[in-house]
Amino acid sequence: VGVLGCGAADVYPRSNERLFATMLERGLLLSEYGWHAPARVWRFPARNRIIAGLAHAVVIVEGSFKSGSLSTAEFAVDTGREVFAVPGEAGRPLSAAPHKLLRAGAALCESALDVLSELHLLAGEEEELSRSDDAAEAGARGDFSEATSDEVRGLIGAVSDEPRPLPAATSDELCGLAGSQTTSDPRRQALARVLTALEREECTIDQLAVEAHLSAAAVTTLATELEIEGLIERVGGGRLRRVRAAAAHRPPAAHRLALAHPEAPGCSKTAEGPKPAAPALSPL
Questions:
Q1: Which of 74, 179, 214, 245 is deepest in the core (most CB within 10 A)?
Q2: What is the mean pLDDT, run by run of 10 residues, along the chain of 284 residues?
Q3: In Å, what is the CA distance from 213 to each residue of 52, 156, 218?
């Protein structure tokens, strides 16, 4: 897959004509710009956010200190993707970007196996990653009837059938979530585990999976729901944190939309009727 910093009708740079044709035949070329939009310097850093968003991980092979590859790595970190860097020859200008990332904590990449291992794509784990993506997409759509199907329930893991007492604050925050009306509901129990784990410190998805004794796929889905409801938020480095009670006690996303935009499609008008128009100002 290639993401362009110009329109898709023109090859840029011209020296890439053969590569362009090969990708059209065997792969995919994407552009968010008009068909004949010319290449511009500012369009390439903007393009890099799409590259980071499409990937499970970003591998920086080379680049200078001002390379756009660093912006791709930054977008990847902000969206919770893994960042890898390939070490280069010391003192070589194009080794500057990967070396900077390695000093900042990027994962070392010496071969494709490093990436496959980190993403759990070895030994037939591709199916698990695909299931994780499906669960996350269902959660992002708010389609929790699908997100709580038998397949995704299996990802949640061994949630006890016996109801566990929830902390009062956590129980109150969860009571407004659709489909979580009883403390014995397995999904409600799983949501509570995620919230409780975030009480102590900010966590990544993988850390939450360990703390809450759930799969990473399940945590991804549950975290999306909690974020939509304003109970948690994303911070730098792909980490999540709990939103304090005062900030979290607000209407769900759909209700907030109705309050902010009473005339929005699907939002009913309030019983008070239209507000009186502001008095006209007479000219001086």
A1: 214
A2: 90 88 89 91 90 92 91 91 93 94 93 84 53 52 45 41 44 52 67 86 86 81 83 82 62 42 44 47 46
A3: 29, 9, 10
| Amino acid present at 231 | L
The pTM of the whole model exceeds 0.70: no
Q: Which two tokens stand for residue 55?
A: 């990937």
272: phi then psi, degrees, rounded to nearest 5: -75, -15
Token pair, residue 146, equals 């699908």
Measured from the Cβ of residue 268, the count of other Cβ atoms closer than 10 Å reads 7
Residue carrying the six token digits 């009480």: 199
Which amino acid is present at 237?
G
Domains and their CATH numbers in the chain: 2-118 (3.40.50.450), 126-248 (1.10.10)
Strands 82-85 vs 57-60: parallel, antiparallel or unpaired:
parallel
Secondary structure (H, E, C), the chain: CEECCCCCCCCCCHHHHHHHHHHHHHCCEECCCCCCCCCCCCHHHHHHHHHHHHCCEEEECCCCCCCCHHHHHHHHHHCCCEEEECCCCCCCHHHHHHHHHHHCCCEECCCHHHHHHHCCCCCCCHHHHHHHHHHHHHHHCCCHHHHCCHHHHHHHCCCCCCCCCCCHHHHHHHCCCCCCCCCCCHHHHHHHHHHHHHHHCCECHHHHHHHHCCCHHHHHHHHHHHHHCCCEEEEHHHEEEECCHHHHCCCCHHHHHHHHCCCCCCCCCCCCCCCCCCCCCCCC
What's phi and psi for 155, nearest 5 deg? -70, -25
CA distance readout (Å), 13 to 4, 18, 21, 240: 11, 11, 13, 40
